[in-house]
Amino acid sequence: GTASLAGAVLTAPRRLDISACDEHLASMSPSHRWKMSSAPGRMLSVVLLAGGMSAAGAAAQPAPVWERDLRAAIDQLGDFDYDVRTRASSLVRRAPQEQARPALAAAVSGHEDGYVRFRALVLLVGFGGPAARQAVSEALADPNDRLRAVAYGYYEHNPDPATAGRFLAALETETSEFVRPALIRTLAAHDADPAV
User: Fold this and answer.
1) DSSP string for residues in the chain
2) 11 CB neighbour count, 10 Å cutoff
3) Which residues are CB-contacts of 157 (< 8 A; sequence separation ≥ 6)?
4) Residues with Cβ < 8 Å from 97, sequence gap 6 or more?
5) Residue 173, exposed/middle/buried by CB under 10 A (0-12, 13-18, 19+)?
6) Taking 60 as the threshold, does the pLDDT of residue 49 lie above it?
7) Is the pLDDT of residue 2 over 60?
8) Considering the chain, what percentage of its residues have pLDDT values greater than 70?
9) Global pTM value
10) Rounded distance, CA 114 to CA 125, Å?
11) Are 167 and 186 in contact (CB under 8 A)?
12) pLDDT tens sequence across 106-121
């Protein structure tokens, strides 16, 4: 009934604009429009649209990005203009993983702008995988406070028992007031280690 339809809508993988249902209703014949204008009918319309959108989303694969565009977008991650940074971040996130991961990893390890390195690490962690794990492991010893904070945040949410000793040792050397709270949260996530 209507409850099960509502449940299907609530678990739809994508947020819907209800105005899309109104447009769908407007395109119907008068007899069908009358049937669908009731609350259950509108709910069915939402479910049908959601199903179509999720099927289309599942079939769509990220389109390859020109390498020069990807490099330019990564450079713009540190731009002073918020809109420029946002567009650049969006382009990188929508790039195929096999393109984005190595480009981001290279930016984290070697970009001349420290803020770009930080933003590249955040995006790389979002992609996940071995490249992200390697980058955060190296970032733990980086002089850039932002990179260390992201790295500790990664291990807070992805605890690795083999790293608990490293975090305990960092308590003696980590002096940044900005980073220490992230380090302490990471240690708390490794509380299964008796030394912690």
Assistant:
1) -HHHHHHHHHT-SS---THHHHHHHHTS-HHHHHHHTSHHHHHHHHHHHHHHHHHHHHH--PPP--HHHHHHHHHGGG-SSHHHHHHHHHHHHHS-HHHHHHHHHHHHHH-S-HHHHHHHHHHHHHH-SHHHHHHHHHHTT-S-HHHHHHHHHHHHHS--GGGHHHHHHHHHH---TTTHHHHHHHHHHTTTSTT-
2) 8
3) 189
4) 62, 127, 129
5) exposed
6) no
7) no
8) 67
9) 0.67
10) 17
11) yes
12) 999 999 999 999 999 9
Six-digit token string for 84: 């420029």
For tokens 């002096």, the residue is: 175
- Tokens 């918020």 sit at which residue? 82
Tokens found for residue 29: 């014949």
Tokens for 194?
A: 């008796």
Report the pLDDT averaged over residues 183-193: 86
Encode burial over 139-166: b for 16+ CB neighbours within 10 A, e otherwise.
bbebebbbbbbbbbbbbbeebeeebbee
Q: Name residue 177's amino acid.
A: E
